[in-house]
Amino acid sequence: MSVILGIDLGTQSVKAMLLDTEKGCVFSDAAGYEILIPEIDYAEQRPEDWWNALKSLLDKMKLSNRREFDSIEAIGFSGQMHGLVALDENNQPVCNAIIWVDQRSGPQVEKINSLYSFRDTARLFHNRPFTGFGVPSLLWIKELKPDVYRKIRRICSPKDYIRAKLTGDFSGTDMSDASSMFGFDFEKRDWNYDELGRMGLDRSIFPQCHEAFEIAGTVCAEASAETGLKKGIRAVYGCGDLAAMMLGCGAYREGISTANIGTSANYNCCCKTDIFDPELRMQEFCNAIDKSYLLAGAILSGGLSLSWLRNKILEGNDYDSVNSMAAQINPGSDGVIFLPYLGGERAPHMDYNASGMFFGLKHIHDKRHMIRAVLEGVTFALKDAERLIEDCGIKNDTVVSCGGGARSPLWMQIQSDIFEKEVIVTEISEQASLGACLIAGIGTGIFSSAEEACLTQVRYKEERYCPNSKNFEVYRHRYQVYHSIYPCVKELMHKNNLI
Questions:
Q1: How far apart are CA 264 and CA 242, in angstroms?
Q2: How far is CA 168 from the centre of its chain?
Q3: Count of C-beta atoms within a 10 Å radius of residue 96
Q4: Which of 134, 156, 161 lies closest to 208 in space, CA to CA?
Q5: Which residues pair with 86 in a beta bridge?
Q6: CB–CB of 442/232 below 8 Å?
Q7: Average pLDDT, the chain
Q8: What is the pLDDT of residues 266-300, one digit of tens each?
Q9: Nearest to 195 by CA among 125, 280, 130, 141
Q10: Is pLDDT of 237 > 70?
Q11: Is residue 439 a contact partner of residue 403, using CB atoms and an 8 Å limit?
Q12: Which residues are identified as catalytic?
């Protein structure tokens, strides 16, 4: 028996899990903090808020599970991706962390795009730059806050700051987080220093890149005094939350994909080789295990589409009644189709001017049709992402559903019918925290491999959702209509946004 601590630094809260390798999860809880919005398009957080939230959570863990807390052998980390923490010579933040939701660096994204042709961007970086990504945010600091930029001696991602506070070593990051900040060389699995220099950035402030399961250090004396964790516990570098979530879902090999429906949504898979979409309609990141890679197709309004309908149109019906109403309508919503582009869209359109819409409304339709159409429309959007991945040659037979969408049996069946694949759900809902535990276990030798870690620690609910062949033709037809709507109205969406 071994006890592992997994820490997942999310956008709204930090979560912690104690994993007993024989008993399973013995503790899982969260502590929240604010997103600061000092100006329009800004999204910041105070790194000290992360640290204080974690300390309060560890205090709670220690009080409720003292024996396991004192038996922790390894610590793993997961965290919100893309964000930027800038530190001075004393490893103190020079400003608030700029997180992935931030939109201020639009001019810097355009500047990066002006340096490269689309083909060169694909060849060099395998991803498009976006606002909220670490490198554009760093360029914003350099150009708009030069006095602050001059104080920067190193940068890191959010979860790296927490790990460094525990170990005292701020020098490194892992490749999944580094590859999500832009400016990464996937062939070398390291920063593309030449191109970062071309952008005008100082290479000396970028952290050393490591594999997620490498040992990053041990709990230092100062952190031990603050947290109660025993000095000397080994900590691995950890990874971005997408890689951790996939591992916590048991997706350690090709053939298993994940459909995560939270506020946003994404369809993801791991692949053995460095593969990317030459049209850059989705994203590629380094994976946490086996020097593999992740392909991720993200949509911006997943569960947000349903909460928008529930709160702003249906005026607060609870989710059970919403699902009950949707279940009364036939697959295909009797012709109603929903485009979930309420805040623009990423995969596959990469169009922030896209907008949501209901298509096909007639007198016979009511709110029940609209609810089911939203569930189907979000899943059609994930089907778009699935197609991108399959176009890259990656085939997946099983989908592990996670996030809020995995709590609805109806939505699970809709996913199975539209993907035409078996859909399963893990027993543990905090998959990123579990993934952080598994990475720590792999790195410290508690598990011999990712396969052993997943096969022994990831458990699925008994109920499995299998595609209903009676629904195939309905959904295949509706998906083709769904897929055809955006190209027909794209220009009108853009014109409408100018009014």
A1: 13
A2: 27
A3: 19
A4: 156
A5: 155
A6: no
A7: 96
A8: 999 999 999 999 999 999 999 999 999 999 999 99
A9: 125
A10: yes
A11: no
A12: 241
**Comparing C-alpha atoms, which of 234, 296, 298, 299 is closest to residue 270?**
296
CB atoms within 10 A of CB 486: 18
Could you give the C-alpha distances from 232 to 73, 167, 168, in angstroms and in order? Answer: 9, 9, 12
Angle of helix 106-115 relative to helix 134-144, nearest 10 degrees?
110
pLDDT tens per residue, range 177-213: 999 999 999 999 999 999 999 999 999 999 999 999 9
What mean pLDDT comes out for the span 314-324?
87
> Which element (helix H / strand E) includes 477?
helix 469-498
For tokens 């460095």, name the residue: 274
**The pTM of the whole model exceeds 0.90:** yes
pLDDT of residue 498: 76
- Specify the pLDDT at position 352: 85
Strands 293-299 and 337-339: unpaired
pLDDT tens-digit map of 427-462: 999 999 999 999 999 999 999 999 999 999 999 999
CA 329, chain centre distance (Å)? 32
How far apart CA 360 and CA 364 sit, in angstroms, is: 11
Q: Which residues contact 146 (CB under 8 A, 6 or more apart)?
A: none
Strand partners, 87: 93, 154
Distance between CA 106 and CA 395 in Å, rounded? 35
Closest CA to 174 of 288, 274, 97, 82: 288
Q: How far is CA 58 from CA 10, 51, 146, 335, in A?
A: 16, 11, 38, 51
Q: Is the pLDDT of residue 362 over 90?
A: yes
Residue 317 is predicted with a pLDDT of 80
